[in-house]
Amino acid sequence: MGSGSEGNRTRMSVAPNAYEAGLAQLLLQREVEAFYTREAELLDDRRFTEWLDLFADDARYYMPIARNVAFDRPEAEYTRERTDANWFDEGKDDLAKRVQQIEGGDHWAEEPRSRTSHLITNVNIAEIRGAEMTVHCRFIVSQNRQDNDINFFVGKRTDILRRSDTLQVAHRTIYLDQAVLQAKGLTTFF
Amino acid sequence: MRLRDTADATAANPAEGMVSREIFSSETIFAQELERVFAPSWAFVGHTSQLAADGDYVLSRVGQESVIVARERGGGINVLLNSCRHRGMPVCRYDAGNASAFTCSYHAWSFDLDGALTGVPRLNEAYHGELDRSQWGLIKARVAIFYGSIWASFDETAPDFETFLGDMAYYVRDLMQSPDGEDDGYEVIGGIVKWRMPCNWKFGAENFTGDHYHNYSHRSVDRLKISLSGKASRHPLAAIQTPFKFLNIAHPGGHTVRANLYEALTDYQSMWGDEPEVDAYFRAAHDKRQKRLGDRARLITRGGVVFPNMHYNTGGRTTIGIWVPVSAAETEVWRWLFVPREAPQIVKDTLRHFYLRYGGPAGMTEQDDMENWSAAQRGTSGVTARKFPFNFQLNINEAHRAWPEAWLGADTMVTAGVSEHNQRSFYTRWNELMSA
């Protein structure tokens, strides 16, 4: 490969088109990760109204219930959107109502409010279709309320992100790694 | 009053409107409850719509214990203790499915849908043909199917299910009637909602008996109008303008109902105005129900408790749940969501959406209930706090028998308005069983 900087070597080893494509992919990855970092900050800073702005007006927010099923029935593991009982299966209007409930000071399950930290990782842009892309990631949400009320939610998320002026969540699926929910309330967002 | 604080004390004196805090925190009392309160009662375990085909099964609970609710060939429903007779393993590892047999994953004893022990490895060479398989089947519960609901009891000496219910039978039948008054008119939505909460099971139970005093808990959700009536309140029923008595209906068996008894039969008053097609369904259903039930259609129930741990909501939110007792300070909740079987899809979808936003850990109403129950739990174990009983004196000594309508049930004791009558009745029955 000869001499030269690390950057030159990399450039030399990759065909020009592939280099441009790789750079675009990297920039997109960076944009999506920055979007999720900002989202997590808004939630953890309790700026819920601004958080809502990250969702498209027709967005869906869906968190199925996990079930213990036989190996040959994997399709039955999670309850179905718009069909079965789910933890959440709703639109932006419902999310907005939840935000209004939390922000009134009289929603006892969030008064005093939770301390949360949302950690988003393993961000994988799985598919791009025009203005939309499917993104998989993992989440850890730590929630503490009052003195000893601690919840630790871990799971997988699949988003459809849509590009208009900015990125927005068009559809979110939240797979929590619990069949029997080990919390008395789902008062945080995922 | 002096509160007894020993393990064998019942420590509840509902006649005086007082209940010891210790019955919520003592593990000794909790262990006695499993034997004396849960074991002799009938348990709600599911609904026939969960078992559409022969071989379909679901897991459920009787008290703390796992049971298999299975439909055998020919449609009969069995409730089997999910515990292998050989080493106690659960013989069914899945929440639901279809099977012709259950085989234990440890030593491979296998059982058919009737619980009979059909397969034993090395039966001849190691048991020498002397194992009487007829004596080693899964433990079978007594089963009652009541308008689609499935009930079980492992107590061979308990009265039959309808005797256990007494006048409550009318209300369980009512619960299972679709909005048009048709018997066995509901089906379960896929997916049973299950979660844990850090409080004694009785906090949930007594709330569902008829705590109409706790509206303050739900201030936040009431200001948001989560019902689809288009009007304020979380309740579709709040849209009805006809004057009514709010009734607390208590049964000697500890079962309780909360209900609105309207002064007159009236035309339908829009309760689902935000969704015109849904409103049209409920309008037609209202008229059919009045034709079917006549004057009794004036009674619209809001929910209740089948003693001890089955609880339900009605009044536009048909859901049934059980409080699974885990320990004195922990409860697992299972909740079944129901929609009218013959209703158009949009009605089913709308109800489902309403239920998910209303109840359970993601429900904007019940989140605040569970916050309060869990906080109350913390007030039951302190060395000082536990010496002082809870107060249940709200509207005490106001009950009337079979009132204001005899058809409410000959043995019912009823109060109108905000009252802790139903809670007192619940603890009276609890006391009877714990003292027995």
List the helices and strands and how they pair.
The complex is a heterodimer of chains A (190) and B (436).
Chain A: H1 6-13, H2 16-44, H3 48-52, E1 55-64, E2 86-91, H4 92-102, E3 115-129, E4 132-145, E5 149-163, E6 167-176
Parallel strand pairs in A: 1-6
Antiparallel strand pairs in A: 1-2, 3-4, 4-5, 5-6
Chain B: E1 12-13, E2 18-19, H1 27-38, E3 43-47, E4 56-62, E5 65-71, E6 77-81, E7 96-98, E8 101-103, E9 110-112, E10 117-119, E11 142-146, E12 149-153, H2 161-165, H3 168-175, E13 186-188, E14 193-197, H4 201-210, H5 219-222, E15 244-250, E16 256-262, H6 276-293, E17 299-306, E18 310-313, E19 319-327, E20 330-340, H7 345-358, H8 366-378, E21 390-391, E22 400-401, E23 413-416, H9 421-435
Antiparallel strand pairs in B: 1-2, 2-21, 3-12, 4-5, 4-7, 5-6, 8-9, 9-10, 11-12, 13-20, 14-20, 15-16, 15-23, 16-17, 17-18, 18-19, 19-20, 22-23
Helix pairs in contact in B: 4-9
Characterise this structure.
The complex is a heterodimer of chains A (190) and B (436). Chain A is an alpha+beta fold and 190 residues long. Chain A has one domain: Roll (Nuclear Transport Factor 2, Chain: A). Chain A is built from four helices and six strands. Chain A has a six-stranded mixed beta sheet with strand order 2-1-6-5-4-3. The longest helix of chain A has 29 residues. Chain A is globular, with a radius of gyration of 20 Å. Chain B has 436 residues and is α+β, with helices and mostly antiparallel strands. Chain B folds into two domains: 102 residues, 3-layer Sandwich (Rieske Iron-sulfur Protein); 269 residues, Naphthalene 1,2-dioxygenase Alpha Subunit, Chain A, domain 1 (Alpha-Beta Complex), CATH 3.90.380.10. Chain B is built from nine helices and 23 strands. In chain B, strands 13, 14, 15, 16, 17, 18, 19, 20, 22 and 23 form a ten-stranded antiparallel beta sheet that branches. The longest helix of chain B has 18 residues. In chain B, 51% of the residues are buried. At the A-B interface, strand 2 and helix 4 of A face strand 14, helix 5, strand 20, helix 7 and helix 8 of B.
